[in-house]
Amino acid sequence: MIVLAIANQKGGVGKTTTAINLSAALAMRGRTVLLVDLDPQANASMSYLDVRSLQKSMYDVLTGQATLADIIQPSPVPRLDVAPARIGLAKLEGQLVGELDAHYRLKDRLQTIKDRYEFVIIDTPPALGLITVNALVAATHLLIPVQSSYFALEGTDDLLETVERIRARPNPDLKLLGAVITLHDKRTTLSRDVQKAITGVFGGRVFETTISKSIRLEESPAHRESIFTFAPQSSGAYEYYKLCEEVIERV
Ligand SMILES: Nc1ncnc2c1ncn2[C@@H]1O[C@H](COP(=O)(O)OP(=O)(O)OP(=O)(O)O)[C@@H](O)[C@H]1O
Ligand SMILES: [Mg+2]
Hints:
It is built from 12 helices and 7 strands.
C-alpha cells in the first residue's frame, strides 16, 4: 500500500485540489484509493460528500472513538473512498497531549485497511503541527505542491527540516516523491523565474507536469465532481492525468 501525504504548511497552494484530483485519476486508472482528509476545514471531504450528513470523522478515528471502517464513505468516483474530516479535528492536538503514541495514531489505524487499498492519499492542513506529523509518520511518500508565486519557497526550509526530523526517527523510509508547481501561468516571466527557483531547491524532484491556473479546477468541487467528469477537456484534467502518470512511474 502506497501512502502518499500531500503537504505544505503554506495555505492555498493547491494541496486539496491536488489530493482530490490525483485520487480520482488513480481510481480511474483502476487503482483502489482511499482519500484521507486530515484538514479540519474538510475541503477534500466536501468535494465528494455531503459532510452535514456524517456523524463521525477522522477526529473520532484518531482519538480512538471509531475505526476507519466505521467512517469510510464511498465517493461518486468508482474505486475511490473517502475518510472524511470535520471541524472537530482542530481539537485533536489538545486531545492527544501527553499520549505516547500521539504521532503514530494514523499509521496504526491505516494498518487496519492495508489490504483494501492500493493507494492512500492524505490531504493535510496548512500547518506543521501534530496532524501533519501524523501524516508524515504514516506516509511512504510525500508530495509537495508549490504555488507558482513570488513567495513560493518561503517556509520550504521549515517543511524540509520537519521531513528530516521525521526521517531521523519515526519514519526513516519516508521518500520525497516530488514537488509539483501549481497555479502556474506559463505566459509570465515571473512564473518562469519561480519555476527556475523551485527547480534550484528541489532539483530533479520537480515533476515535469505543472498545473496551470484554471477556473474549472476551482469550480469542480462545488459540483462534487473531479475535474475528469466535470471538465474532461480542460487543461486541469489533462495536467492532473499527466501528474498521475508521473506519480505511478515514481512510486
Ligand atoms: N490550478 C488551479 N487553478 C485555479 N484555481 C486553483 C488551482 N488550484 C487550486 N485552486 C484554487 O485555489 C484555492 C486554494 O486551493 P486549495 O484549496 O487546493 O489549496 P490548499 O493548499 O489545500 O489550501 P489550504 O492550505 O487552505 O488547505 C481554492 O479556491 C482552489 O479552488
Ligand atoms: Mg486544503
